[in-house]
Write a structure and sequence with these properties.
The protein is mainly alpha-helical and 307 residues long. It contains 13 helices and no strands. It has one domain: MetI-like (MetI-like fold), CATH 1.10.3720.10.
Length: 307
């Protein structure tokens, strides 16, 4: 090939620099990016999710079978403990570790169902109120204000008394407590989006209101919606644990972390592991989810990503 036909070194340098940045990140920049990822919270969340999904395979004992001769055994590393019950037993001789594993399944199931229902309703109401505006916005926002003024735990307790205990009642109660916060935040995002040029162009093209909300507004608020979901997982888990603690959650003998804390609260002095171990599990999960939600918000918000 003639010398004149060869690409100049100057033209090759940007291309080579791009490939080096993609394939071999610099040692100075990579640790900074890696350090921002909350690996410990992600590992804790992943562990609890695996526990919930594979509870029948991971649980060493039945979570509901009672063995009264083995009641209130301490954890295996303490004097009087047994290798059969690594985290000890409760007042009915049930394995704490097995109940902890199955309780993770209940807590995560309630979180998924409640956030799907409450978050979905709040998303639709927020988009409708923010884009349509006028009388529709006023009516919907007054409903949101009314939802914020009612005591959350009292409302859930009244619902549990009238409808009875169970998974469905618990999900409905928590969903009715969540939708208002989703609606208010999403509405604020939509109020800014409807002034953008792409919405004006969609109106000029003759797009209907429903089409604009579904194809132009909805994709642009999904990032905010996902951040709200992650930040409210901890709220749902605390609400489920609180209602179970108060006796308005899922009835026994189905294991839940809040119910385990409630059952062990009267034996803190002589059998601390019955209440403390599920309490630690709740704390770790809520803290990990909140840290992961903060990181996800920083990653998805371009204004925070530059900090």
């Amino acid at each position: 090939m003639a010398i004149a036909d060869r690409p100049s070194p100057t033209a090759e340098q940007p291309r080579r620099a791009l490939w080096r940045a993609l394939l071999w990140p610099s040692r100075e920049a990579s640790p900074r990016r890696t350090a921002r990822v909350p690996w410990v919270p992600i590992a804790i969340i992943a562990t609890i999710v695996v526990m919930a999904l594979f509870a029948p395979l991971l649980a060493p004992q039945s979570p509901i079978d009672q063995t009264l001769r083995d009641k209130l055994l301490p954890p295996a590393w303490m004097a009087g403990g047994s290798d059969k019950y690594l985290l000890g037993t409760d007042a009915f001789g049930r394995d704490i570790l097995s109940r902890l594993i199955y309780g993770a399944r209940v807590s995560l199931l309630v979180a998924v169902l409640a956030l799907t229902a409450g978050g979905g309703v709040g998303l639709m109401i927020g988009i409708t109120a923010g884009y349509v505006g006028g009388a529709v916005d006023n009516v919907l926002m007054r409903l949101v204000d009314a939802a914020f003024t009612f005591p959350a735990i009292l409302f859930a307790l009244l619902l549990a008394v009238t409808m009875g205990q169970g998974l469905g009642t618990l999900v409905i109660a928590i969903s009715l407590l969540l939708w208002a916060s989703f609606a208010r935040v999403i509405r604020g995002e939509v109020l800014a989006l409807r002034q953008r040029d792409f919405v004006a162009l969609a109106k000029v093209r003759g797009c209907s209101t429903l089409r604009i909300m579904l194809t132009h507004i909805l994709p642009n608020v999904l990032n905010t919606f996902m951040v709200l979901v992650t930040l409210n997982i901890g709220v749902v888990i605390i609400a489920e644990a609180s209602l179970s603690f108060l006796g308005a959650g899922i009835p026994p003998p189905t294991p839940t972390w809040g119910l385990m804390v409630s059952e062990g609260r009267g034996r803190i002095a002589d059998a601390w592991w019955v209440a403390l171990i599920p309490g630690i599990a709740i704390t770790l999960l809520v803290l990990s989810v909140n840290l992961f939600g903060d990181w996800l918000r920083d990653r998805l918000d371009p204004r925070l990503r530059q900090l």
